[in-house]
């Protein structure tokens, strides 16, 4: 189509000032820049066509559980779509369709959407209104900032009897004299045009002068289309001239012309002499060409060195030249801008692309285990002498799912994988992996590993002995008591069986002799050595048993 191969010559200074606020949101607003003669739509965009795919629609249908057949609203904006297709067959129940800020040049494949109420095609490359007769329920159509120049194509919307809102702001047709009057008279069902309500008096005035306005609009439209055709032909000639220059530059395989001298007819001797002379000339020319090539290579190397020294300056100059050079506002210039931005984005991705990290070494070639903390977690490694255990407290995130943690306990080290990141620590002593335990704290969420030591038995928790009363603030007088306290052996009553064969019940409680009373009985007190054991200490604070 010739519509894709031309450069629009319309002056867009006034129109661009009016539409700057709308067009700036598209991400392709720039100063007017002149297109190169050999750059056309087909040459530059044939290999980068982006289509509407089922996967794209399903990803945009998450609000409908990724179901396409029952989808009523879908947003496909800013997807670099260059053609509307498949939507009318896959999504028959669509009511709202967003296709703004794409690269769509034509309205097509939407006639089967009988329930479609709102169609947004703003910021595209549409040049005519067409193929919307089948959208019987269409109520709102947005064609803001497109390239609609055939204003007569608006009359195709007469079949859409429910259409009440139409937006054509930022299109070439809005500059035509009598534009609003023509649209209001051609579409009597409209209530709003370009965001402004259509009053009853305005509709009456528009219908009264419709024939005159139609003739005026027709003349302006013919002039616009004629100018477009001329510019298309001019762009084609420039493109053909650019290709011809490229072919002339590449005459031979090395850029030089050669002639066949073997077809001379004067005579064999003359031909041989000519051949020898030609060979000598060719040798001289080859030597000269080699010298010239060497000189060119040296110059190119010098230029490259200079360019390497200042690559940023050259890029900035090229970027400034691209954005500051004026050009007409056309579909081609918009495509070129998009291509330029896409190229810059890819270059930036290549620069910022992270190199594949080499696999982290957890164990060296000689078998030495390394300490690694990829998740950068705080930890505490303590050794309990009382229980002969090593306790590792790893501060994993509190709300982290336990299924994302993998623990591997080895005799000499512990490895914990937290969301694929490795935490590894070497233990100070050998442990028993089969007896180790791993638990999550219910308060902090920390991972606590209990690792019993391989050497020695697990000791029972010590029982705290109650201190004796006679050793409160003073030292114990008996060395045996100190020995018992050191060895933590419970005290037992010792009885010498050689001295007493039976228990003396009468002397369990010691009584003092008194001279009061008629029942006084003189009793001999046995020696203390016989009554008490060697380790017995008489505490005067303890009352006697009566």
Automatic annotation (TrEMBL):
Biased composition (Acidic residues): 300-319, 536-546
Biased composition, class Low complexity, residue ranges: 274-299
Protein's UniProt name: Leucine-rich repeat-containing protein 6
Record's keyword annotation contains Cytoplasm: yes
Compositional bias segments (type: Basic and acidic residues): 226-252, 333-356
One annotated GO biological process: outer dynein arm assembly
Region described as Disordered: spans on this chain: 226-358, 469-489, 514-546
Gene3D superfamilies: Ribonuclease Inhibitor
Annotated GO CC locations: cilium; cytoplasm
Superkingdom in the source lineage: Eukaryota
Every U2A'/phosphoprotein 32 family A C-terminal domain range: 176-194
Polar residues composition-biased segments: 469-480
């Amino acid at each position: 189509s010739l519509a894709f191969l031309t450069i629009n010559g319309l002056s867009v200074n006034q129109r661009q000032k009016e539409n700057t606020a709308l067009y700036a949101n598209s991400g392709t607003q720039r100063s007017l820049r002149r297109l190169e003669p050999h750059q056309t739509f087909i040459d530059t965009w044939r290999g980068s066509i982006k289509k509407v795919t089922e996967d794209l629609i399903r990803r945009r249908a998450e609000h409908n559980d990724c179901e396409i057949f029952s989808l009523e609203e879908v947003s496909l904006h800013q997807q670099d779509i260059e053609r509307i297709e498949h939507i009318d067959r896959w999504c028959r129940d669509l009511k709202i369709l967003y296709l703004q800020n794409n690269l769509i040049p034509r309205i097509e494949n939407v006639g089967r959407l009988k329930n479609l109420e709102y169609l947004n095609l703003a910021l595209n490359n549409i040049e005519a209104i067409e193929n919307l007769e089948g959208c019987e329920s269409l109520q709102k159509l947005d064609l803001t900032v497109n390239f609609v120049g055939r204003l007569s194509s608006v009359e195709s919307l007469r079949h859409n009897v429910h259409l009440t809102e139409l937006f054509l702001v930022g299109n070439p047709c809005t500059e035509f004299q009598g534009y609003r009057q023509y649209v209001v008279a051609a579409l009597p069902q409209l209530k709003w045009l370009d965001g402004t309500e259509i009053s009853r008096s305005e509709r009456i005035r528009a219908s009264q002068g419709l024939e005159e306005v139609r003739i005026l609009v027709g003349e302006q439209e013919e002039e616009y289309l004629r100018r477009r055709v001329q510019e298309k032909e001019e762009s084609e000639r420039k493109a053909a001239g650019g290709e011809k220059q490229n072919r002339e530059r590449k005459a031979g395989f090395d850029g030089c012309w050669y002639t066949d001298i073997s077809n001379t007819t004067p005579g064999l001797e003359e031909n041989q002499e000519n051949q020898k002379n030609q060979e000598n000339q060719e040798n001289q020319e080859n030597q000269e060409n080699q010298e010239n090539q060497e000189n060119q290579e040296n110059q190119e190397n010098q230029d490259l060195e200079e360019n390497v020294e200042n690559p940023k300056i050259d890029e900035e100059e090229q970027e400034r030249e691209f954005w500051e050079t004026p050009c007409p506002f056309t579909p081609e210039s918009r495509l070129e801008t998009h291509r330029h931005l896409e190229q810059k984005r890819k270059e930036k991705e290549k620069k910022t692309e992270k190199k594949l990290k080499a696999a982290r070494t957890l164990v060296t070639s000689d078998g030495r285990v390394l300490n690694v903390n990829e998740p950068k977690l705080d930890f505490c490694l303590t050794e309990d002498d009382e229980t002969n255990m090593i306790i590792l407290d790893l501060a994993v995130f509190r709300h982290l799912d336990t299924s994302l943690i993998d623990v591997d306990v080895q005799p000499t080290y512990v490895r914990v994988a937290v969301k694929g990141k490795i935490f590894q620590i070497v233990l100070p002593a050998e442990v028993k992996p089969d007896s180790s335990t791993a638990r999550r704290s219910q308060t902090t969420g920390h991972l606590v590993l209990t690792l019993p030591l391989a050497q020695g038995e697990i000791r029972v928790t010590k029982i705290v002995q109650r201190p004796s009363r006679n050793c409160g603030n003073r030292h114990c007088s008996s060395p045996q008591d100190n020995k018992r306290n050191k060895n933590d052996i419970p005290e037992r009553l010792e009885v010498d069986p050689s001295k007493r064969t039976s228990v003396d019940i009468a002397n369990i409680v010691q009584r003092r002799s008194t001279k009061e009373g008629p029942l006084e009985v003189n009793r001999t007190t046995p020696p203390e050595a016989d009554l008490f054991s060697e380790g017995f200490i008489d505490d005067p604070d303890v009352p006697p048993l009566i």
